[in-house]
Specification:
The complex is a heterodimer of chains A (about 200) and B (about 600). Chain A has about 200 residues and is of the alpha/beta class. Chain A contains seven helices and six strands, in the order βαβββαβαβαααα. Chain B is globular, with a radius of gyration of 27 Å. Classes of the chains: A alpha/beta (about 200), B alpha/beta (about 600).
Amino acid sequence: MIDKTKNILIVGVGGQGVILASELLSEAAMKAGFDVKKSEVHGMAQRGGVVSSHVRFARKVYSPLIPEGDSDVVLAFEAAEGLRWANNVNEDGLVVVNTQEIIPPIAFTKGYDYPEKPIEQARKQVKRLIAIDAIGIAQRLGNVKGVNTVLLGAIAGELPISDEIWEAVIRRRVPRGTEEMNIAAFKEGAKAAVML
Amino acid sequence: MSKIKKLPEIKEPTRMLMSGNEGIALGAREAGVYFASAYPGTPSTEIMETFARLPGIIAQWAPNEKVAFETGIGAALAGARTMVCMKHVGVNVAMDPLMTFAYTGTIAGFVLISADDPEMHSSQNEQDNRYLARFAKIPMLEPSDSQEAHDFFKLAIQISEEFETPVMLRITTRISHAKGIVDLVPWPVPQVSGFKKDPDRFVMVPQFAKIRHHEVELRTERLKLYSEETAINHAEPGKGKVGIVTGSISYHHVREVMPNAPVFKIGMSNPLPIEAIRTFAGTVDELFVVEELDPFYEEQILAAGIKCEGKKYFPCEGELNPNIVAEGLRIAGVLDWQAPKLHPGEVDVIPRPPVLCSGCPHRTVFTALKKMKADVFGDIGCYTLGALKPLNALHTCICMGASIGMASGVQKVEGSKRPVVGIIGDSTFLHSGITGLLGAVYNKAPVTIIILDNRATAMTGGQQHPATGHTLQGEETTAVNLVELCKVLGVKNVCEIDAYDYEETLKVIKETTSSGETSVVITNRPCMLYPVKKKPEPLEVKLDICNGCGACIRIGCPSIRLIDETTDKGLQKVAIDPDTCTGCELCAHVCPLDECILPVK
């Protein structure tokens, strides 16, 4: 069992499914025998705000908040959010960014612009970054709601959690009838991350 | 919404990942709590939402925290173990019964949950409610994670019954919403012993209250001894000569950065275990106090003549986190620490302030008020977002119900030079607006009060309230009629409007604000998210007609965006996202062109 706490920061925009993804990850880590803490703030989140969820696991976890700059994985559900949070990854950590762009209404008022090529900007700041078109992959599998599991699949290679545990957790937590699609999405995400 | 889904009974010891709020709900069930009452408020809401789904108990939403508390007193005096839950500012509303219930004390266990919000994630202030437990002279427990939230609740019930006092369980947003592993056990069958008359104790007229106040002082002395002895206040030995006194979430941040330091962990923080802390202080050379918000521990420790430092190094604003704690200890010269190397080029990315949802019926009203250049006195709810860009159509927000009183006060001293409007949601109106409106009518304030009736307590997740016709546990009930209610209060001019009809909305508000009498305008479109989603009939922009005027962009709808295609004059045209558009048609109403924004074919 690892002693150093594994820190995974999952970020995105309200309504994208960041919280569900962090739930699945936390449950998988618990099933794998770790102490787990997970933290995010509810409330304003669903109204288009920034959502960030901290998931930490180890033999024993204290703070539910990841120390700044010490995430082993930053998983961004949205491109500009990838740019916002990329520098929270640690020296050897991995940033995974979904290529989807969600432009906030404020971008159409004076003085605010959505960043140019956010993923390329983020790439310059970190050692390891993978960009994934999770919507495209999910659509090819026939259900755009598989974005969540595609992205979890993409970070799975970084984590000490077996495929059997992932599969069991996905089966338990996703809506009935979408189990096979979600498991396929998870595998496709994992495959895409390796290929890049 | 009808019957809510019940949770399965816990029949054998079980281990689950749960939030502090869920931990409290399950802890309450294990403690034999039979009755719970609350008003929704972030970060406390999920306690009741979880508890209400457990079999064998009564859980109800009250119109406000004062009523929740008073109903809870009744249940506890009838011998049922009781929980009342509220956010920190909700306790302000419940202070009146709290201060005197502290005198009478309770029969069955009574626990008040105060869910504070350091950092103001979803609140108007970050008051530190630990002072309120001390003010009311009641014991207070401060759990640090989900397991403790669960365990401390059960202990709180024990303390409440042993000392016959209400107990405050004080949590914060991080405790409420962070998840951790919790061990659960099977539940008892809740008991109700029945109310027994005891006027010397429960009729707080001066001659009896004086006797009870003396009892409170005696109780406090006994509680001090308890706090010195209880296992939830304890020293954790460690290496080095620097000791730290801490509690609540700060304990975990301290352990994160100084895993081996001697720590005194506070679990019961009123009364503080001062002598145990004095003993701990004697084992170290330097003593630091790490606590979120105000110096609640630090001031009492200093007042007891124990040397320590705290707020000199740790802020009293916002939440703490491992980095802030480490940095404070570094400046204090006791931790060799360096901020983890952030990668160069700290990025400044576009902010995402929360916005009213696509199809939100509030947007129409704010668009009209902006057009009228009205002075708008706001309240607590989603509609507070009307203050932000690009609507900028709400100009104050203080507390639940303040809109009506403030609008009346402004109008009284200023006269009606500009339209003066108070704007309040349905749940907030029932919580604290009714008396304000009564005052406006009584004092003849010619203000217009707009009740944004979306049939839900929307901001906190769409909870039921006395005008929705359903209870927390899913039963049908009487729904108060807001129009009749306002009329009975003496408002002669009560208008109902369709919040998706911009022209009508503008016209009616113009009329009422110039009518010279107290008027009420009630909108009648339900929240887009609760209780049932409206079937969307999305709109689209005819690009051959769009002239790039930007009128639709200025309503701040998240489904409308500027696109690269421009008009002959170089103005950007707009597009509507068909996946998120709800077809409310406000954009079509404000569009100066005919046939530009139409339903998708």
